[in-house]
């Protein structure tokens, strides 16, 4: 805390002053709110030795370290990390195998999780086990803050998509969640989302961090399935539910203290 000097006002009969008496308190509280004084310089000072060119590095993009598709840009006062999936083809016949005309959209999905798979019964699972890129980053942090956002393109159905006038009929327990975990601690969540149609979700997050050799940012998912529920005559049921994951992207910024 920097030094603060108190003023002593002249006292005399018929003497008045227009000074604001809370100025001294304001200067003290300003430092607590982030305004630094001359003796409160940042942890990393701005000097010529620190003014270096940006460095581009590869970072781990899978929890087991088997892939380094993530990109890191290291700068003097901050670093930026990014990883994204690479689905960019519009070759998926969305209405197949029905006899309706083909509707080619972005796809096919990068990953599909069926209700018959064991992963549905384990609770919250890492999305990196379904999609190889765009869902995980591991990097070295410096003391300060990390801020980021996770984007996930998701679809959850249990009926055939060729049904005319489909509005979605699901059991009461049909829900899905997307989470962001940092070093195995949840920092963001969509909350329970109803099934039906395709959606893209964005999860922003921020938290203070210390200097660490490894900060792991992991996008995870969960879903529930309580059976087929009810359906009108023009919807044909399928045997199992399917969550489809399309493009995913993860962006993180480490602002140094």
Description:
The protein has one domain (51-256). The protein has one helix and 15 strands. It has one helix at 23-32; strands spanning 55-59, 70-74, 78-84, 92-93, 104-105, 111-114, 125-126, 136-141, 144-159, 175-182, 185-189, 193-194, 198-209, 212-224, 237-256. The strands form three sheets. Strands 1, 2, 3, 6, 9, 13 and 15 form a seven-stranded antiparallel sheet that branches. Strands 7, 8, 10, 11, 12 and 14 form a six-stranded antiparallel sheet that branches. Strands 4-5 form a two-stranded antiparallel ribbon. A hairpin with a 3-residue loop joins strand 2 (70-74) and strand 3 (78-84). The longest helix is centred in the first third of the chain and has 10 residues, at 23-32. Residues 160-169 and 229-239 have low confidence and may be disordered.
Blueprint (SSEs and pairs):
Elements: H1 23-32, E1 55-59, E2 70-74, E3 78-84, E4 92-93, E5 104-105, E6 111-114, E7 125-126, E8 136-141, E9 144-159, E10 175-182, E11 185-189, E12 193-194, E13 198-209, E14 212-224, E15 237-256
Antiparallel strand pairs: 1-2, 2-3, 3-15, 4-5, 6-15, 7-14, 8-14, 9-13, 9-15, 10-11, 10-12, 10-14
Uncertain spans, ≥5 residues at pLDDT below 50? 160-169, 229-239
SS content category? mainly beta
Q: What order do the helices and strands follow?
A: HEEEEEEEEEEEEEEE
Task: Work out the strand percent.
Answer: 35-45%
Which percent range fits the helix content? under 10%
- Alpha plus pi helix count: 1
Distance between the termini: 17 Å
Main sheet makeup: 7 strands, antiparallel
Question: Total domains, how many?
Answer: 1
Q: Care to count the β-strands?
A: 15
CA-based shape: elongated
Q: Averaging pLDDT over every residue, what do you get?
A: 75
Radius of gyration: 27 Å
